[in-house]
Amino acid sequence: MTDQLKKYLLEDRSVRVQAVRLTDTWKAVQANHDYPPAITHLLGELVAASTLLAANIKFDGSLVLQIQGDGPIALLVVECRSDLSLRATVKVREGHEVPADGDMQSLLNPGGNGRFIVVLDPQHKVPGQQAYQGIVPLEGETVAEALQHYMKASEQLDTRLWLGADADHAAGMLIQRLPHHGGSDATTLSEQAATETWDRATALASTLKRDELLATEIDTLIHRLFWEETLVAFDPQPVRWHCPCTRERVANMLRSLGQVEVDDILAERGQVDVACDFCGKPYVFDAVDCAALFTGSQPANGDAPPTVH
Q1: Which Cys pairs does UniProt list as disulfide-bonded (predicted)?
Q2: Is the pTM of this model over 0.85?
Q3: What is the pLDDT of residues 118-173, one digit of tens each?
Q4: In Å, how far are 118, 265, 283 from 271, measured between CA atoms?
Q5: DSSP H helices in 68-190
Q6: Which of 48, 96, 165, 189 has the fewest CB atoms within 10 Å around its CB?
Q7: 4-180+197-241, which class in CATH?
Q8: Domain 247-293 grouped into CATH 3.20.20.120
Q9: Measured between alpha carbons, how far is residue 208 from residues 172, 203, 254 in Å?
């Protein structure tokens, strides 16, 4: 079954509800990687969170969530495009072990220098336009708490998140209080009424447990939590893994290193091995391939899939 994100509004349109439960996409994130359980939990929660947030961006481009740390984990990063295609990776510091019972603070922020970074990167920029980057200290005990802190500090939107991940699923639910505006074609909603709706929605959603989030299909979960509410449902959006790495992109990266450095690697190892940080796909360049990088010609198998060992 295709992984999907589902969106709802409460009847007065003052609260947004979104839920996602990833299976195939999450398995693709983990393919070619052997993550310890603590990384699986943290990265899966960040993947679910990025999907929930990217579903609301208003431009063609990417939302990137990064956690930079000073502990055993140096970096967690997820990029999710506006079409909900995503990729993710982890950087672990060499020589550091990741304990199975490690949490976000112990693995990423033991020295207090951890940062949570959100990047909004439109694909089509006007001249002089830069990607938006928001940075806040890494606060809270979980990915959900860190994101809620960012949302409140950066966007002033009341947001609650429930996230969970194991080896089989990455799942999340978001509720968010929306700005309400009057108008000739809009139902007038008082601040008190909007607050009551928000309080009621958060109370209902707060009964959700992590195991229930991971084990329950979205439709069943939403019905179980909000069965007394009238919800406006939107068309589901498919979610998928997508890594844009190609052999040609890797070749261009090697060209940027320069022939001297590539020749040094070739002399030391007999071939140049490059693995994509995101999908883990290995690319192998032998002496003939490396020579072709700097002669303007390509070997006959230049468009062939990478050699896999």
Answers
A1: 243-245, 276-279
A2: no
A3: 999 888 777 777 888 888 999 999 999 999 988 888 766 789 999 999 999 999 99
A4: 37, 7, 10
A5: 104-108, 143-154
A6: 96
A7: alpha beta
A8: no
A9: 11, 10, 49
